[in-house]
Amino acid sequence: MNVKEVYCGLSGECKTKGVPTVFVRLVGCNLRCRWCDSRYAYGGKKFKASPTRLFRIVEKVSSSFTHPKHILLTGGEPLLQMREVIQFIELLDPLLTVEIETNGSVPIKMLLASITHPNVIITMDYKLASSRMEAKMIMENFAALRPEDQLKFCVATKKDLRQMRDVISQIPTCRASMWCSPVSKDRAFLQEVEQFIFEHKLFVSMSIQQHKIIWGRKRQA
Ligand code: SF4
User: Fold this and answer.
1) pLDDT in tens, 12-60
2) Does the pLDDT of residue 112 top 80, yes or no?
3) Which residue lies with its CA nearest to atom 8 of ligand 1?
4) What torsion, rounded to 10 degrees, do the Cα atoms 170, 174, 177, 181 define?
5) Which atom in ligand 1 lies closest to the alpha carbon of residue 30?
6) How many CB atoms lie within 10 A of CB 61?
7) Chain-wide mean pLDDT for the chain?
8) Is 172 exposed, middle or buried, given 0-12, 13-18 or 19+ CB atoms closer than 10 A?
9) What is the distance between the alpha carbons of residues 55 and 50, in angstroms, rounded to a whole number?
10) What are the pLDDT digits (tens) for 2-13?
11) Closest CA to 20 of 89, 100, 97
12) Atom of ligand 1 nearest to the CA of 76
């Protein structure tokens, strides 16, 4: 596996926000979102590890927690290394929760059919117009999400908000919890997002990116 970094921090978004987490960041991404804040994961310095070796590294890093509970696989796009990701997850303690962040452009059918670990959460992005990556979204992915999964709309503009509303109406069978994650921390925009959710009666939770409030542009690792 091509790995960028493994480190401990607080999860920054959606239902695991604030939870002490072991971050496993894999290298490479098939998208180029306009406002991407993880460009350093496209390539550059990295190390290679088999799923078994990565498991040992994660065990070592998580030994700093009294009771490690949550592992987050992120990127880049971790599912570009799907076969190895599946092998890695199968090595993990079934009592841990394992979250996989994915960008909505990689088919997840094989992943869902293969994982036997009982506590896997998929957090999938829907890339809206402001990302310029919307054409890469695979609509079947969103219908395949399970109730324990999360669908996250990263919104940067008013146009994104209107588009989020329209996309939600196009996937009435989606069972995942839905989240709206403003890219900006601008207070006026955050207020606009909240007003939009109520005005349009959307059952969407707002997730403000906690790690950016705490760390700004500084990286935690
Ligand atoms: S999918 Fe994520 S890592 Fe890839 S370009 Fe978009 S924001 Fe960046």
Assistant:
1) 889 988 899 999 999 999 999 999 989 999 998 899 999 999 999 999 9
2) yes
3) 36
4) -30
5) 4
6) 18
7) 93
8) exposed
9) 8
10) 999 999 999 888
11) 97
12) 3
CATH of domain 2-215: 3.20.20.70
Of all protein residues, the one whose alpha carbon is nearest to atom 2 of ligand 1 is 76
What is the pLDDT, as a whole number, of residue 221? 54
Nearest to 167 by CA among 204, 114, 217, 123: 204
- The best mutation among 103, 125, 160, 183 to test binding of ligand 1, ranked by most ligand atoms within 8 Å of the C-beta, falls on 103
pLDDT of residue 123: 98
CA distances to 72, 175, 214, 216 from 18, rounded to whole Å, are: 13, 24, 11, 16
Ligand 1 atom closest to Cα of residue 103? 1
Look up residue 86 and give its two tokens.
């599946």
Query: What is the token pair recorded at 73?
Result: 């696989």
Name the DSSP letter for residue 130: G
Write out the two tokens for 37: 């804040």
Is the Cβ atom of 101 under 6 angstroms away from ligand 1?
no
With CA atoms as reference, report the closest residue to 216 among 181, 179, 184: 184
Q: What is the pLDDT of residue 219?
A: 62
Q: What does the pLDDT average to over 85-94?
A: 96
